[in-house]
């Protein structure tokens, strides 16, 4: 397995990296990325310029593939984090999860595409669970609230299916 990461940089930095990789330019010979002790914030260095960087979690896993013959794809890694390089004046993100994916359809993906946690009263869930265990063991329920039991049973059943 290879070690891979996604590096998102401002356009001006991207041009300098392209020039460094394509032309072996002599003015920008050094590239460096270092993180502080917290592992989330760091510094990206290209030439003599320093840019702040942050390590953020993506809302989903991105698979990376490689090909040697332009017909067969071989999976090389699962990427779940992105290194975001910012210009000097840009504010640091205050969260550890990047809200958007890598492509426009994944914009605000966590809110739009993933299932939300149900709003359930924990005491009600404990009571219904206790009643269900009593019924499965041949006993009876203490207080029967059919509607609550049905809602929790349906939620439990759909979670078991998925």
TrEMBL record:
<keyword id="KW-0539">Nucleus</keyword>
<keyword id="KW-0805">Transcription regulation</keyword>
<keyword id="KW-0804">Transcription</keyword>
<feature type="domain" description="TAFII55 protein conserved region">
    <location>
        <begin position="1"/>
        <end position="143"/>
    </location>
</feature>
<comment type="similarity">
    <text>Belongs to the TAF7 family.</text>
</comment>
<dbReference type="InterPro" id="IPR006751">
    <property type="entry name" value="TAFII55_prot_cons_reg"/>
</dbReference>
<dbReference type="GO" id="GO:0006367">
    <property type="term" value="P:transcription initiation at RNA polymerase II promoter"/>
</dbReference>
<dbReference type="InterPro" id="IPR037817">
    <property type="entry name" value="TAF7"/>
</dbReference>
<dbReference type="GO" id="GO:0005669">
    <property type="term" value="C:transcription factor TFIID complex"/>
</dbReference>
<protein>
    <submittedName>
        <fullName>TAFII55 protein region</fullName>
    </submittedName>
</protein>
<dbReference type="Pfam" id="PF04658">
    <property type="entry name" value="TAFII55_N"/>
</dbReference>
